[in-house]
Write a structure and sequence with these properties.
Blueprint (H helix, E strand, L loop, with lengths): L2 E3 L9 H17 L4 E3 L14 H4 L6 H13 L2 E10 L2 E9 L5 E6 L5 H7 L9 E4 L2 E5 L8 H9 L4 E3 L9
Parallel strand pairs: 1-2, 2-3, 7-8
Antiparallel strand pairs: 3-4, 4-5, 6-7
Helix pairs in contact: 1-3
Amino acid sequence: MKLALFQGPPADGDVAAALTRARQLLEGAAVLGAEVLVLPELWLPGYNRPDLHPRLAEEQGGAWLGVLSTAVRAAGCGLVLGWAECAGGEIFNAATAIGPDGVVRAHYRKIQLYGGMERAVFTPGRAPPPVFSLAGRRIGLLICYDIEFPEHARDLARRGAEILLVPTANPAGF
């Protein structure tokens, strides 16, 4: 499996620019033969911005994932990205995997929240991390700090994950 990974400056609330950048990165990844592009934790609307997450978080099936599904289908390259999700009055640090056909293959809400900012803004996920098929492989999905807890990786491996994808971002100073 050939992966393309991007770690760069956060969107900082400029969702339109982040979506444009994601389209460009998908096109570039596809040209290079990547089967999946992995973008950072909280790519949308931006990492470490507790002022933005409650205000800009979207529901599953919202505009962001619609735009990205179309871009993924056009590029023919899968995508895994982190984003702020709102559901039932709660905000989650979430990640979604989209197959090259533009169909969502997995969705996950971060269980292990890191630091005061994340604990103040986000609700921990309650479902176990998913195992799903993408590019002919069995994939497990975690988000950043989750990987520091070996029981998550062990559980994913026991359930058949061959590869773990872990969208990650770090605040300044780390």
